[in-house]
Amino acid sequence: MMKLSCNAVDQIHGGAQCRFLGPHKTYCAAPRRKVSILPWGSGKKRRAEIVAVVSDRGAVPGRVEPMTLADRLRQGSLAEDGKSYRECFIVRSYEVGMNKTATVETIANLLQEVGCNHAQVVGFSTDGFATTTTMRKLHLIWVTARMHIEVYKYPAWSDVVEIETWCQGEGRIGTRRDWILKDYATGQVIGRATSKWVMMNQDTRRLQKVSDDVREEHLVFAPRELRLAFPESNNSSLKKIAKLEDPAEYTRLGLVPRRADLDMNQHVNNVTYIGWVLESMPQEVIDTHELQTITLDYRRECQQDDVVDSLTNVEHVKNAEANLDSRGANGSPAATENHDYRQFLHLLRISGDGSEINRGRTVWRKKPAR
Amino acid sequence: MATFSTLAYFPITIKVSRIRASYDPNKKSLNNIKINGTLTKSTAKLDMASTLTSISVTENGYISEQQVRQNIPTTKQFVDHYRQGMIIEGGVGYRQRVVIRSYEVGPDKTATLESILNLLQETALNHVWMSGLLSDGFGATHGMMKHDLIWVVSRMQVQVDHYPIWGEVLEIDTWVGASGKNGMRRDWLIRSEATGHVFARATSTWVMMNRKTRRLSKMPEDVRAEIAPWFIKKQAITEDIVEKIVKLNSQAKYMNNDLKPKRSDLDMNHHVNNVKYVRWMLETIPDKILEAHQLTSIILEYRRECGSSDIVQSLCQPDEDGILKDEVKQENDGSHINGFSLAAEILEGNGYLASFGKQPLRYTHLLQIDEESKNEEIVRGRTTWKKKSFSH
Q1: Does B384 or A2 have the greater pLDDT score?
Q2: What is the 3-state secondary structure (H, E, C) of B226-241?
Q3: Which of A309, B52, B226, B320 is deepest in the core (most CB within 10 A)?
Q4: Lowest mean pLDDT among A7-21, A206-220, B72-86, B376-390
């Protein structure tokens, strides 16, 4: 069945490209139309036509948003063995930030997008939760427990980035999703990421073990052998993050989630947390360094009415190993801090009662001289 | 010809970029846009190249490096596979296929206005890219670079009939036209690829400014020669009367003070991205209203830029349409019904808001920099909203 869907997707891609390069439809020939409200009817009808495709795959049509044309014309595709998914993105002009390169939020958004698209292509729910049939029956959802992103070279405007992603089991209670980012033009690896997800009951908000049914549904699409974006032992994606000690050296208090920070499931978007963590970073580091690594441990959700404080401390690294990764230029173990790399510990907490939302660690490398 | 001028200026601009580190070209107020008297009429010409980000443009030196790195084409392209774009309208317009991404969608499961504005900016820039005229990442043509000119947006108007959902495939058309003698207009149409229905339309007007003197400039003849061939008369939105946007004062009904740009709001030049202004403006409207309504139209008049260290104040005033303005306050208070019979609507479960009729809500907005001596206007806005139909 996997093979079939791969081929179908590929065929449609081929078709889509031919169609795109063909003669364009003359929509623009229409005269200035009166401003009119698109009746819901026409929209619904289009969606209804495509629901059938989704139900063939075993998804529950009622609970799942029907597949759109985008699915069939998607730029990404499953690998031949069906165990991973690859998609290309061009960096858009407005996704480029202060450093003239894609921001880490843009990268995080793209990771999320390709993760969602992967889930959609293999038939998981498209309501943003990527749940399997059994999970939906039991009111279970995935929640992010940890997110770890390393960027070695930030892409610039109009660069094309190829992102490959796959999913695997992680112990009894979780699953992991890994990504590799490459510069499409050169094939060079420009970043890696891994994330850990746990299953939670939507109603009770309690964590739950991954039952065998769910594991099987889920892992059909996982690589047979363990495949890690971070295969090296003792890599920083596994390190524990300590709780930052009060008083913090740098703070930004009173951050409030607004409607614009909410995602389609009315939760504060994961990527918003990254923005909040960076809010309390000292300006002199932001000016001279670029973010190489960010690790976030998600502890509790932030609701729309909460007020959040962002705290940052320098993390002093005692041993050389933590400060140097395989990409570091410095080969000799140093007991003191290397100013080409700076490391920080972060905490996001509710302003009122101080309960933790996220813990974080960031590693920054000196910007390349222009 | 284009190729030659690129090479000629390449070394010069790179050198300049090193010195230009602290150059802050966009601080000057745009109030002197009143060339011929009325504000809106005179400030329309948009530089093809400089789309919405032009206000924050001006990284001259970096552009040249970028030009080399990005392989910015110097001759007209007809199709771009990665952008999914192609030239249309007999060779002068541009159409791009866009799929709405998951993170562009908001809590009501439709694309946010910000995402739509971002896509307009993107397609505009891609249009210039395809034209072979692009000199920098913000839209200045080769001729403009020569004269140290940049495009600055002065007015933007967007009408949205239907917001697309995650995964929806759109076709965005964009083209340019003349606006007065020295400005440019850029229009867009956003359509569903599947049905051809128009989801949204937009128009914007741009003026040219000298980057160094910060004075508005006439269009030099060589720039006119570059871009005039791309002008067409077609318009996405026509208005008979250009509405004047009133300046609000501290009596405004809703106010947000102490707005500070977050790091993620800043663009390459440490200025607040134009689209972020809209976020601040809309945040000032109470969430209850935002949850129940969708924006059908927005008009923006840009005055001056906001920098990373500015503190901004956002003001918002609903139109005084009689009862309409009090509806939110009275939502939970059953005793002040003003004599209307609301029973039917309330029974339907739509609450008080539904009962106050079919008139759209309209707001006036103002963003200004909060300074002790005076408040400098950043942008004025006018928004129109209609009730959402709850289909989910």
Answers
A1: B384
A2: HHHHHECCCCCCCCCC
A3: B52
A4: A7-21
CA distance A176 to A169: 6
Phi, then psi, of A107 in degrees rounded to 5:
-60, -45
Chain B residues in contact with A160 (beta carbon < 8 A): 82
Measured distance CA(B120)–CA(B116) in Å, rounded: 6
CA B119 → CA A307, B97, B111, B170, B282, distances in Å?
31, 11, 11, 10, 19
The strands making up B375-387's β-sheet, listed across from edge to edge, are B79-80, B85-88, B93-99, B169-179, B183-192, B198-210, B149-160, B293-302, B375-387, B361-370, B312-318, B254-259
ipTM beyond 0.95? Answer: no
Q: Report CA-CA distances (Å) from B53 to A66, A106, A294, B118.
A: 35, 17, 28, 9
Annotation says A265 is catalytic: yes
Q: Considering only the beta carbons, identify the residue of B99, B103, B273 that sits closest to A70.
A: B99
- Which of A126, A259, A279, A294 should one mutate to test binding to chain B, selecting the residue with the greatest count of B CBs within 10 A? A259
- The helix or strand, by DSSP H or E, that contains position B179, with its residue range, turns out to be strand B169-179
For residues A277 and A358, is the Cβ–Cβ distance under 8 A? yes
Chain A closest CA to B24's CA: distance in Å?
14
Angle at the Cα of B116 from the Cα atoms of A17 and A53, rounded to 5 degrees:
45
One-letter identity of residue A100: K
Q: Which DSSP symbol is given to B59? A: -
Burial A308-335 (b: 16+ CB within 10 A, else e): bbbbbbebebeebebbbbeeeeeeeeee
Q: Which residues contact B360 (CB under 8 A, 6 or more apart)?
A: B296, B384, B385, B386
- Residue A304: phi and psi, rounded to 5, are -65, -25
Mean pLDDT of B193-207: 93
Q: Please, which pLDDT band fits residue A370 given cuts at 50, 70 and 90?
A: low
